[in-house]
Write a structure and sequence with these properties.
Order of helices and strands: HEEHEHE
Number of helices: 3
Strand order of the largest sheet: 2-1-3-4
Shape: globular
CATH topology: Histidine-containing Protein, Chain: A
CATH architecture: 2-Layer Sandwich
Number of domains: 1
Radius of gyration: 11 Å
Protein name: HPr family phosphocarrier protein
Distance between the termini: 33 Å
Largest sheet: 4 strands, mixed
Helix content: 40-55%
Pfam families: PTS-HPr
CATH class: Alpha Beta
Length: 80
């Protein structure tokens, strides 16, 4: 699968939830619901931190872990 397909699926999955879903990479914070933000940040070989806050947080985390794993992208979920 291409990077474009991964970005589209990640964004579409994130948009199913009302929770805030933010990807942290180094000192950048990217709204996962923003396709443009993902295009400028998502690189295959990096690890990202995922921050999820909101009423459907647990479901959002599970879905995001699934879609990132499907595209061989490494995320670490940060719970505050």
């Amino acid at each position: 699968m291409s990077k474009n397909e991964a970005i589209m699926e990640i964004s579409q999955t994130a948009n199913k939830f009302t929770s805030s879903i933010v990807l942290q990479f180094e000192n950048k914070y990217i709204d996962v619901k923003s396709i443009l933000g993902l295009f400028t940040t998502l690189v295959d070989s990096n690890s990202y931190e995922l921050h999820v806050h909101g009423p459907d947080q647990e479901e959002a985390i599970a879905s995001m872990q699934e879609v990132f794993a499907k595209h061989n992208l490494t995320i670490v979920v940060k719970k505050d």
